Amino acid sequence: MKVLVIGNGGREHALAWKLLQSERVNQVVCVPGNGGTANLKGCQNLPLSVNDFPAIGKFALEHNISLVVVGPEVPLANGITDYLQKLGLMVFGPNRKGAQIEASKSWAKSLMQEAGVPTAKAAVFDQAHPAKVYVQQQGIPIVIKADGLAAGKGVTVAETLTQAEMAIDAIFQGQFGSAGNSVVIEEYLPGQEVSVLAITDGVTIRPLLPAQDHKRIGEGDTGENTGGMGAYAPTPIATPDLMSRVQTEVLENTISALNQRGIDYRGILYAGLMVADNGDFRVLEFNCRFGDPETQVILPLLETPLDELILACVHQRLAHIPPLVWKSGAAATIVAASAGYPGNYQTGELIAGIPNAETSFTKVFHAGTKLNAQREIISDGGRVLNVTGWGENFQQAIAQAYHGIQQIEFSGMYYRRDIGHRVLKFIG
């Protein structure tokens, strides 16, 4: 079976790597891929834009692609699934209507309220002045969100009134492009974030292992929000009782509400939760695709063949698949970023040491890399590499990941030294 993976990040490298472990998958093509997928045995890169639907469709038909797996949210929101399905291709990822669950925070908030999903109180504004008045009335801390897609960077947890007003101005002044046509203002919820990625065929929905991302650039969870600086799985914060509630109150209720809106949602439904100290939770947001970097810690622990799960969703027979099988232990990933990220950053830096970082318990997933003319790996993004380690427990997994990243060098390389600090404190 030939599989086409859309995207060029660490998530897509992890997807290609996992798919190629199946005896049914003999080739993966990544559009456009990165330096890691270029060197992955059984994988090739295709230098097309993820939004060039006609060229992607033409290639898939001419080369007998059996399955298309869409990584990023932007092509999903732009309707890649709808386009390719009309050509008769099998696609894993929701259609354009379903992708609104991530593409519009206000749409998702309305859906959650309709479905009875526990979520934060919020209001939506399309002008700055009434948004600021609302913030003054509600008080701080408060959360300011650009309504549309902003690559994980359109959220500000404002701790002062000035910070809230600056965030509102930045959104309406175009810092996040069309994502800033409106703003969603939410109550601040204390606690810890948990990522629950679930796989669904539009009727049945099954959660994967719960993970915890580290979104802030600075150690101690300080500084600006990023696309994610590291993650670990499974998080013990998501207890069996909590996951049982998430299954019924969040996942099943949301799929039911989507069905009531006439949306056949097949793919990943990713719920970002805030879990309070007392174990209660609220849904902060939904995403319509595999998380990044959560995918890089979930897939190394998955024993069930990934292609089997994906095909079951495409054919709407997920209910007939046996319970998912997982490796024992834990996994952790550390993001190596370019200097300046999440602001302006440099690219084109030569990367050394990747082969030394990889062992039987460590894998380097490329996030923002490419090959230069000499086929050397160079940096090509803000988040450059994800060094993932796994072991029998959290201490081993985190130690493997940090040992791996210490073998790697490139000019300006930055990474957090405290990934997993919350779980290490939790387990004592």
From TrEMBL:
Q: What is this protein identified as?
A: Phosphoribosylamine--glycine ligase
Q: Which family does it belong to?
A: Belongs to the GARS family.
Q: Which reaction does it catalyse?
A: 5-phospho-beta-D-ribosylamine + glycine + ATP = N(1)-(5-phospho-beta-D-ribosyl)glycinamide + ADP + phosphate + H(+)
| Residue ranges constituting the ATP-grasp domain according to the UniProt record | 109-315
- The Enzyme Commission number assigned here is 6.3.4.13
Q: What one GO molecular function would you report for this record? A: metal ion binding
Keywords for this protein:
ATP-binding, Ligase, Manganese, Metal-binding, Nucleotide-binding, Purine biosynthesis
Q: Which gene encodes it?
A: purD
Name the cofactor(s). Answer: Mn(2+); Mg(2+)
For the biological process aspect of GO, one term held by this record is: purine nucleobase biosynthetic process
State the species of origin.
Cylindrospermopsis curvispora GIHE-G1
Concerning NCBIfam families, the annotation shows: purD
Q: Which PROSITE patterns match?
A: ATP_GRASP (PS50975), GARS (PS00184)
What pathway is this protein said to act in by its record? Purine metabolism; IMP biosynthesis via de novo pathway; N(1)-(5-phospho-D-ribosyl)glycinamide from 5-phospho-alpha-D-ribose 1-diphosphate: step 2/2
Q: Which residues form a coiled coil?
A: none
For this protein, the record's InterPro entries field holds:
ATP-grasp, ATP_grasp_subdomain_1, PreATP-grasp_dom_sf, PRibGlycinamid_synth_ATP-grasp, PRibGlycinamide_synth, PRibGlycinamide_synth_C-dom, PRibGlycinamide_synth_C_sf, PRibGlycinamide_synth_CS
